[in-house]
Amino acid sequence: MEISDVRGYALSSPIDPAQDRPFCGGTRRLHKRDVVLVVVETKDGVRGVSTAGASSSAMREYFEGDSQGTFADVVNGDVADALEGERIDRIADAHDRIADAGLPGRLRTEAVSAIDVALYDIRGRELGAPVYELLADEYGSDPTTEIPLYASAGMYMEPEGYVEQAATIEDLGFVGYKYRPGIGPDGDRRTVELLAETLDEAEVMLDVHTWWKIRDAYDEDTVRELVEHAAECGAYWIEEPVAPDDYDGYRSLAETGAPLAGGESEESAAGLVELGRTGAVEYLQGDVRHHEGYTGCREAVEFCRGRDVEFVPHNFGTWLGLAANAHLVAAAPEVGLLEYPVFENDPALDSESDPGMYQFDLAFDIIEGEPAVENGVLTLSDDPGLGVEVDLDIVERYPFVEGPWTEFHYDD
Questions:
Q1: Where are the alpha helices (DSSP H) in 84-158?
Q2: What is the pLDDT of residue 61?
Q3: How many structural domains does the chain have?
């Protein structure tokens, strides 16, 4: 393929009014969600799309001191300069050209991730094949088009609020309910106990990245006790119980026998494998949008094969990102579960009670139509590429808004 045009569009989806979510030791304010839409076009007029934008639970921008707006500038500048007018025979060649642009590490990784996904979208459209078929050829696997989902919701509420939300998630047929505790050690214990008592079919998953941000109430001994307690209550996993780079902390908690998950905050594809090599996590959470695309995630998928660690993609963002990670799950061997973020007023979910976490309208509007989600299963079509079409009207409908998307305010 010969690349003729590369564009990055910074978009913001307002949370209006802004939401304040009290947690133990402070309040988290939610202003908006930011996304960078990346559009790549070939000389023959074939267009591929992807999303970028930091959604790491580390709550830091990939580009410290900068924003998604400045990343879009990088796409339109250094990345476009590296690729426009170039013939790309192997998608990995685009990685090399971006690397030659001399971008800092995180910027390079984010750019490579977005371009890799967009080029796979193009290649699939050129060949008239869905991306999962291209990937299955590479893995030597038999792809599946039906993908079980676990629901990702629940943020800082009373224990009974989590239970009500989880019951709705279970009724919708999702494999599991993942929530964000952090309301205080006693409240967190009570929450997991109530969820274990209430849910019959859905698994309970904890995303506990707040614990390592609150240093007073959640010291090392408290975190260890909470992890052990969650495991005793039958938690499917406890995600990011320590800071992403605290491998010794992961190893120590793994000694309890509790099932741990992590990886979304790793800064590179190689970092995913490094975390897996600690032997401390049972679930490795790579993401094609953040770990060098399908090409970068392959090493981690292959690492997990035949080992007691399962690759389960992190996927928190728009329906376009959902499609991108779904194609990996459909094709990758020994990978069979995907995260489905639940935002307010999700039109794909039919429920009297809204289990959404917060407003993120762009998550739905970024593509035309809806994903085929029924009874907790996503079914991919055999349409070429990613199988979705992006409505470029969103560029005007969701202009970028400067400033942080979320802020943590701590009590004095």
A1: 91-99, 105-127, 131-139
A2: 43
A3: 2
182 and 324 part of one domain: yes
Residue 332 structure tokens: 């990758």
Cβ 50 vs Cβ 320: under 8 Å: yes
Sole residue written with tokens 């074939």: 46
pLDDT of residue 267: 87
Domain with 8, as residue range(s), is 3-128+395-410
Q: Which residues, listed in sequence order, are joined to residue 3 by a DSSP beta bridge?
A: 42
* Cβ partners under 8 Å of residue 311, min gap 6: 283, 284, 286, 297, 300, 301, 304, 332, 334, 335
Q: For tokens 């996927």, name the residue.
A: 315
- Token readout for 282 is 């049972």
Closest by CA to 220, choosing from 244, 178, 250, is 250
Tens digit of each residue's pLDDT (9 = 90 or more) over 213-270: 776 789 999 999 999 999 999 999 999 999 999 999 999 999 999 999 999 999 899 9
Residues 207/180, Cβ–Cβ less than 8 Å: yes
As given in the structure block, the two tokens for residue 252 are 């120590």
- Tell me which residue of 268, 274, 288, 229 sits closest to 50, measured CA to CA: 288
